[in-house]
Amino acid sequence: MIFPAFFALIVGSGMIVQWGISFTRRQIPELETEPIRIAFHLAGEMVTALMLLVSGLGILLGSSWAVPLYSIGTGMLLYTAIVSPGYFAQRGQWIWLVIFAIIIMLALWSSIVVNTAT
After folding, report:
1. Less packed terminus of the chain by CB within 10 Å, N or C?
2. What Å distances lie between residue 46 and 63, 113, 118, CA to CA?
3. Cβ atoms < 10 Å from Cβ of 87
4. pLDDT tens digits, residue range 9-32?
C-alpha cells in the first residue's frame, strides 16, 4: 500500500501548495467577485487535502484508522476532481482536464488497492 499512501501525500500537499501559490500571486479573482462561494470551496479543498495527508501518513504507519479515513479522503478527492475541471474547461485550459482525469484514475485505483489489501 505504499503507492496509495504516497499518492495521498503528494496530492494532498499539491492541493495546499497550488492554492497557496494561487493566493500569493493573486490568481483567485473569486476572492473579490464571489468571496463567500470561494471561501466554502477553499474550505472543502483544504479539508480534502488534510484528509489525504493524514490518511496517507496513517497508512505508512500501519494505523487501523487510516483505511476508512483514506476512503473518505479519496471520495472527497474524486468529487473535487470531477467538479473542478469545469472551471478550466470554461477557460479553454484543456491540459487541466487531462491532469484531473489522471488524478481520478489514480484515486480509483489506489482506493481499490487500499480496500482490497485489508
Report:
1. C
2. 22, 24, 27
3. 12
4. 999 999 999 999 999 999 999 999
- Domain edges within the chain: 2-116
Runs of H (alpha helix) within 1-118: 2-24, 30-33, 35-61, 66-83, 85-90, 95-116
Place of cell 499539491: 14
* CB < 8 Å & 24+ apart, contacts of 107-111: 107/7, 107/11, 107/74, 107/77, 107/78, 107/81, 108/78, 110/3, 110/4, 110/7, 110/8, 110/74, 111/4, 111/70, 111/71, 111/74
**pLDDT tens-digit readout, 73-95:** 999 999 999 999 998 999 999 99
What pLDDT shows up at residue 84? 92
Cell numbers linked to 40: 466554502
